[in-house]
Amino acid sequence: MSVDTATVRRIAGLARIAITDDEAARLAPELGNILDWIEQLGEVDTAGVDPMTAVIPNHLRLRDDVVTDGGVRDKVLANAPQAEHGFFTVPKVIE
Questions:
Q1: C-alpha distances in Å from residue 13, one per residue of 10, 19, 24, 58
Q2: CB-CB contact of 89 with 82 (8 Å)
Q3: Cβ within 8 Å of residue 88, ≥6 positions away
Q4: What band does 56 get if pLDDT is binned at 50, 70 and 90?
Q5: What is the pTM of this model?
Q6: Nearest-10 crossing angle of helices 21-42, 5-14
Q7: 71 exposed, middle or buried (CB, 10 Å; 0-12, 13-18, 19+)?
Q8: N or C: which end of the chain has fewer CB within 10 A?
Q9: Rounded mean pLDDT, 56-60
Q10: What HEC string does the chain produce?
Q11: How confident is residue 57, by pLDDT bands cut at 50, 70 and 90?
């Protein structure tokens, strides 16, 4: 697939990247080569290949998802400038 400088300037504009005409002329064949490589990847037969997320087997050790209150309310409120009845105290904001 061939990419011309007008296409490169359009892509750069969409990406909000400022490029000069010289840079656009230099990037056009590079983008064309990248798109050719992507077309080659599309020709690979992957019918018998299972999808994978990693090259090695990777098993995550997960803990049980248990809902708790944390049990550290007093420690958290110790950081507050003002606390009252187990809650943060803040000044009223009225406009």
A1: 5, 9, 11, 41
A2: yes
A3: 77, 80, 82
A4: confident
A5: 0.49
A6: 90
A7: exposed
A8: C
A9: 81
A10: CCCCHHHHHHHHHHCCCCCCHHHHHHHHHHHHHHHHHHHHHHCCCCCCCCCCCCCCCCCCCCCCCCCCCCCCHHHHHCCCCCEECCEECCCCCCC
A11: confident
- Phi/psi zone of residue 5: left (φ > 0), alpha (ψ -120 to 50 degrees), beta? alpha
Give the tokens for residue 41. Answer: 């990847």
What is the token pair recorded at 70? 């944390």
Residue-level pLDDT at 69 = 76
For residues 65 and 81, give the distance between their C-alpha atoms in angstroms, rounded to a whole number.
33
Amino acid at 67: V
Please classify residue 8 by burial: count the beta carbons closer than 10 Å to its beta carbon, then call 0-12 exposed, 13-18 middle and 19+ buried: buried
Q: 34 near 27, Cβ under 8 Å?
A: no
